[in-house]
Amino acid sequence: MSKKQGFTLVELLVVLVIIGILAAVATPIYLQHTRKARAAEAVATMGLIRQAERDFRVNRNVYVAVATDNIQDSLPGPALAPATDGLEIGATPWVYQYFSNHAYTVATTGLAWNANIPAALTQGVAPVDFLIQATGTASVVCGGGTTTDCAVRATDVNVAATAYLLQMDNSGRVFVSYDNGATAAGWSAY
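Structure (tokenized):
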């Protein structure tokens, strides 16, 4: 007579517990990496804006302030005449993944980091020369007739309670919040 072999209930439970522990450890790490990957698009665009501001300063001895929804007006694109203010950023895609052109602003006066950024992060140093901000809640979602200057997955960064907010100055310091800048705990250095 042959004996049937298989897994006992205890062995199956041990395997399930191990899988549960691995999932509990891996999930937060995965979520953190996906959040940072979404923010990377904004950081890259902010880097282009930062370089354009520096170039403009060399040529005209002044930085350009850009209001919400006007970053595209300051950029030459395939269907636009050259920018009247001269601020030029290399290739500017018309459709983004997460942050549309509407999400970016540049302040040149009254510079101050978001009030909720902990002093330990900023080390008490104010923004230098200008402050670029990417606001997830201002990112325009593609759809409903909007097919240019929009973000395909803007809803991943613009839901009010978990909206992304990033700030960068001329020195290249970047701070990011995944809670729309509402709490000090939500801010981190990028």
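DSSP finds two helices and seven strands in the chain. Residues 9-189 form one domain.
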